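Researcher: We're teaching a course module on how sequence relates to structure. For the next exercise, students receive a sequence and then see the predicted structure as tokens, so they can try to spot secondary structure elements on their own. Here is the exercise chain.
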Amino acid sequence: MTEKQNILIIGAGLCGSLLALRMAQRGYDVQLIEKRPDLRKVNIGAGRSINLAFSDRGMKGMKLVGLGEKVKELCIPMLGRMIHDKEGNTFLSAYSGRENEYINSISRTDLNALLLDEAEKMPNVTIIFNHSCLDIDLENANASFFDEENKTEITLQGDIVIGADGAGSVLRKSMFLHRKFLFSFSQNFLTHGYKELSFPPTEDGGFATEKGALHIWPRGENMVIALPNLDGSFTVTLFLSYSEGEYNFDNLTTPERVREYFQKEYPDALALMPELETEFFQNPVGALGTVKCYPWSSYGKTLLIGDAAHAIVPFYGQGMNASFEDVVVFDEIIDQYEGNWHKVFTEYEKVRKKDTDAIADLAVDNFHEMKEHTASAIFQEKRKLETTFEKEFPLEYYSKYSLVTFKEDIPYSEAMRQGRAQDKAIINLIADGKITTVQSNREILDLVKRETKEILHDDAVAKHLM
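Model: And here is the predicted structure for the students to work with:
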């Protein structure tokens, strides 16, 4: 960097705060602008915050800014999925056969607050809250904002503008409406929404159920999940169709019907929810959607990052992790081309786009897997085999989940390619009766490897012919 430049970042959520801190560490002057109040002073997320599953790709981002140890204090390790059936039976499906691989439950607010605190310590960071972005001048790198407290409009200038302003990004909208270059955009919603509920701590301040797991109540088309919090509570999320099925958000309109639904489908969870009816009608229904767009930059002056470029559904626990990895990849590209923002932006989006598309598709896949397949016999047999492989042959086998979640050196696109082939190979072998009890684990793994290799070859040939 030949001169100290001013970077205007829109959005002080997780990605924007991490990016602001990192760019300040690189010596840039940073203006970080947020439309909401300061979340460290005002509770702004009630009823809308799905707990975060913090894993290796997210940790990369925290280590980049020197917060790898501090963030661990906010984490609760979750070793696997605790599956709950209708009769109250439970089954723990480990995330990995390797002992050091697990995900963490973390509070979105606590993590965001940590990043804001650290960014605020930097003398070259200015954070402004309660300013809603109205429009961005893409060619001149300035943005207009509405000051919510003083009811006035202001314009802020940067050498570049980066939009970390989430799925409803104003910068992305400005690109879409600009009409001076081709801009592709898609937004696809699931037929399901979500509603946040909770398990309170026990009377002595403990956890009402096993704290070291992500709990899932899979019920075909719908499900409930629960993640632990440091105070002994659990954040519980109901994923339910808006209008389809016997029970849906459109027809759960009375306390009696809500209780009836939970008593029928989630009786053991209901027993831990003394405030179910109050929370159900107090908290809003949130939408679940995927956003894809391209390009992510314009004129070497503006760039989309995080959810503004690639919002995904939460079912792989990778939304925040992917956004943090965005910052890591962006930082690596700056190392190569610092001083030429146009080159930085175009190389970054070229490198990153295929991977964010991959994790978006995997997240939708995992939605169906979690609500429909986690309790099935063939899925449990597959997971048992994968866990055994990872335990006995830790350097030879990584499941699709492990490739995505724990192998941060492998791009999402490669994790998807390899992982899908492995899944198909194991399920085919189980379904065809080619895996037997007389075979050793070594023989079974070799069989899975051969089948996976054949599937990858066939996929490559098919792609070449398309």
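Model: If you want an answer key for the exercise: The CA atoms of residues 389 and 395 lie 10 Å apart. The chain is about 40% helix and 25% strand.
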